[in-house]
Write a structure and sequence with these properties.
By secondary structure, the chain is mostly helical. The protein has 10 helices and 2 strands; from the N terminus they run αβααβααααααα.
Length: 205
């Protein structure tokens, strides 16, 4: 797993903390939920709070279980649906991750650019793992435009690998060269060695 995701999830955890929802007798809309009849509001608030706590601590499977329970009783807003997509990604449910983000990605354009980049990364990497390289390439290109500068090297590396899988070796090598420039700029010696190995493999193909 690329370090990009560690940085990205740290940011997303901060977003969730900022939007954490108190247990209070306020309308369920404040929880990103739309109430349906027959639901226990207090239990649902507790489930949501616990799901967020699990997510923040990296317990994505446990968070996913609770989010899925909530989604059966409520209509979750787009941000919480995106959190479910992230949970599925870390549970390696790549097909489900793709299905979720395919359905909501156009609705996420009002979120902060870097938050969007996290969701694009999860969708792109899921497609890559399922060998949908053309779609993965499109999504990584979009992620590159939204992510922080110190993450662009990873995005360029993934773009290059997509091109390699699609048989575009010269283009792939160009993107890896660009990744090298970013890794040198941010003194990331580990990633620099990684991309240099990839370039060596390509030159031998």
């Amino acid at each position: 797993m690329f370090r990009t995701t560690i940085i990205a999830l740290a940011f997303l955890t901060h977003v969730i903390s900022a939007k954490s929802l108190p247990i209070a007798p306020s309308p369920a809309q404040q929880h990103g939920l739309s109430m349906q009849q027959g639901s226990n509001q207090l239990d649902s608030k507790e489930q949501l709070s616990r799901a967020i706590e699990y997510f923040q601590s990296g317990k994505y499977h446990e968070a996913l279980l609770l989010f899925n329970i909530l989604s059966k009783e409520y209509t979750l807003n787009y941000r919480f649906q995106a959190y479910i997509g992230v949970c599925n990604f870390y549970d390696r449910n790549y097909e489900q991750t793709i299905a979720i983000f395919d359905s909501i990605m156009p609705r996420l354009d009002k979120f902060a650019p870097h938050e969007q980049s996290i969701y694009y990364y999860c969708a792109a990497e899921s497609n890559y793992q399922l060998k949908h390289y053309a779609e993965s390439l499109r999504l990584f290109e979009h992620q590159f435009l939204l992510c922080f500068n110190n993450e662009k090297g990873d995005a360029l590396l993934r773009i290059g690998l997509c091109h390699r899988q699609l048989g575009n070796i010269p283009t792939a090598q160009e993107y890896l060269q660009q990744a090298v420039a970013y890794y040198r700029r941010f003194n990331d010696s580990y990633k620099l060695k990684q991309v240099e190995r990839e370039m060596k493999y390509m030159s031998e193909e």
